[in-house]
Amino acid sequence: SPYEMILVERQGPAGLIRLNRPKALNALCDQLTAELADALAALDADPAVAAIILTGNEKAFAAGADIREMQDRAFPATYMKDFVAPWEAVLSVRKPVIAAVAGFALGGGCELAMMCDLILAADSARFGQPEINLGIIPGAGGSQRLTRAIGKSKAMEMVLTGRMMSAEEADRAGLVARVVPAAELIPEAVKMAEKIATLSPPAVAMAKEAVNAAFELPLREGVRLERRFFLSLFGTPDQKEGMAAFLEKRPAAFKG
Ligand code: HXC
């Protein structure tokens, strides 16, 4: 493997990326984020991969940006070379990206999980934005994505005080899709990828883009985007196949 801080493997149609800096609780240093960006692009380009799973280990998804590496950074060098920008590689992936979170997802770790298309949480997951304890604030979208995910008061409390949220609270607040027993985390994420692998790839890609657009666009523009995608899918053989299969009471064989 060309990587030192991540592990990449295939599990059926899923491309699995495991953050692998256990001694530092997967703190997101420059090398790790560069490796992650590279692996995401490679899996996105691999036609055998239907969805990508991003995970850590039992103790931590990621405990944030690497504090040791950040300690001596200074302005304006930080502004001239934005070290956070490479983290956003996950936003340009066209296939679904599932964050499978066990243990700590703190600071940049929570932000990275929120940049994924959905979060599947183990019952051991803990989410937080503790940057305020370090004299900084979230820098990779936490103040924005957390607020949109769980609302102003809860997000404000977490960002202002650094309080962590349990998996159960995150589930109630709508931050995560589902909570599963820790031992089931990867199997459940792989099951999701397996289901996605049976579907029409252009429909999956447009579904992902449409839902993500809800975070960016006013309602009317979002609905217009959805409508254009929806109507354009009637130009795909997969729409004919999907509807014929339903009416003939047989499984669909989508070709993409
Ligand atoms: C560098 C980290 C780290 C981090 C943990 N470690 N988090 N190193 N950056 N973010 C290291 C510790 O220094 C320690 O190394 C080892 O991992 C194990 O951590 P412990 O603290 O000993 O573990 P524990 O007592 O179990 O506590 C777990 C913890 C705590 C509660 C998660 O580690 C913690 O509070 N971590 C920092 C969380 C945080 O503040 N995150 C936000 C970072 S700022 P040694 O060498 O001592 O064994 C951020 C900004 C993002 O993310 C903005 C966009 C870039």
From TrEMBL:
Q: What class of enzyme is it?
A: lyase
Task: Say if the entry is tagged with keyword Plastid.
Answer: no
Superkingdom of the organism of origin: Bacteria
Q: What is this protein called?
A: enoyl-CoA hydratase
The family database entries (PANTHER family) matched by this protein are listed as: ENOYL-COA HYDRATASE, MITOCHONDRIAL, ENOYL-COA HYDRATASE-RELATED
Give the family, as the similarity comment puts it. Belongs to the enoyl-CoA hydratase/isomerase family.
Q: Write out the GO MF terms.
A: 3-hydroxyacyl-CoA dehydratase activity
Reactions mediated catalytically? a 4-saturated-(3S)-3-hydroxyacyl-CoA = a (3E)-enoyl-CoA + H2O; a (3S)-3-hydroxyacyl-CoA = a (2E)-enoyl-CoA + H2O
Q: What does this protein do?
A: Could possibly oxidize fatty acids using specific components.
Q: What is its EC number?
A: 4.2.1.17
Which UniProt keywords are listed? Fatty acid metabolism, Lipid metabolism, Lyase
- Family matches, as Pfam families: ECH_1 (PF00378)
UniProt cross-references to InterPro entries, sorted A to Z: ClpP/crotonase-like_dom_sf, Enoyl-CoA_hyd/isom_CS, Enoyl-CoA_hydra/iso, Enoyl-CoA_hydra_C
Question: Biological process (GO) annotations?
Answer: fatty acid beta-oxidation
